[in-house]
Amino acid sequence: MSMTDPIADMLTRIRNASRVRHSVVRMPGSKIKTELARILKEEGYIDGFSVAPAVEGPGTVLEIQLRYVGSRNRDCAINGITRVSKPGLRVYTQAASIQRVFGGMGVAVLSTSHGLMTDRDARRAGVGGEVICHVW
């Protein structure tokens, strides 16, 4: 079965795993998913990630270690994660008009001509692009 939107699938797997408080989530890997995981790691939303060859079939497996804060409730560091640009409706923005996520408390991930980067990095570099997702 082919997947229409692998990025949305990745975000949904992370969202579902955090809601049931899993410590690790596994998914099929790709270059863009690995870059998105790298950004989430740099921003402090996940503890780490690893890419390994798939045991069954071709490709790779991306494994993400979710980050939890607080010892009692074990709240996930990711309170919300949403897909913005979808295959049916692409959302592009210029560097000057990149909106802040929750007044700067969250982060927007953009696909630019310089690769995937956060909204802060895109504003600093003066480049716009496709808004992939919002994380807070």
Automatic annotation (TrEMBL):
This is Small ribosomal subunit protein uS8. GO terms for biological process: translation. NCBIfam families: PRK00136.1. GO terms for cellular component: cytoplasm; ribonucleoprotein complex; ribosome. GO terms for molecular function: rRNA binding; structural constituent of ribosome. Belongs to the universal ribosomal protein uS8 family. The gene is rpsH. One of the primary rRNA binding proteins, it binds directly to 16S rRNA central domain where it helps coordinate assembly of the platform of the 30S subunit.
